[in-house]
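User: Second chain of the day. Same drill as before.
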Amino acid sequence: MTTYTCPKGHASETDDFCDMCGAKITGGTLTIPVPATASMPVSTPAGPPCPNCGAPRAGAGRFCEDCGYDHSTGKVPVLTPAEAPPAPAATGAWTATILADRKYFEDNAVEGVDFPAQAGDRSVTLQPPQVRIGRRSSSHGTRPEIDLADSDPGVSHNHALLTLSVDGVWLVSDLGSTNGTYVNDEEIPIVAGVSRALKDGDEVHVGAWTTITLHAPGS
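Assistant: Same format as last time:
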């Protein structure tokens, strides 16, 4: 709607006399209202992506649940230097045997829990690019590929991660677990956020008694 300003400042729809006070409009100011711009909805930005793999960060968790990146130190999982790099894996599927290991349990003298009476083993195929080791939980939103919720009380919900590198080598990294992740007979757990290369026959120990042995294709 076009309006005209009278000498007394009223906005009039007529251009000769103000339709509010009757004052004669001479050289009044023409006012053409500008339609208001519709406000656009503002979307809430998603959590910052992991600098290492790009996965969204869930809450204030220290370690990325996809690659183990440490948000506190800014360290990216790296391959621990070795005297000789492992040979690339042969084409085919790697597998893992999951065992309730009495020797590992007794060597660590775990108190307060009893070794399971039914201590069987099972085999799984490792599906690239990543295999999570942990305990399923609806409240924590965890669904690990190697689920030890019903078999080992010492395993964390997000315990460790197996990742297939571009060279065809499986790496293991700890995701900040409570009881640590050990490789073979080493007495010191691997450092959270640092990946270790694994070869055929290597053992990954987690929880109170679980040993996960990797098998290369054809072995």
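The chain has a mean pLDDT of 78.

User: Great, on to the next one.
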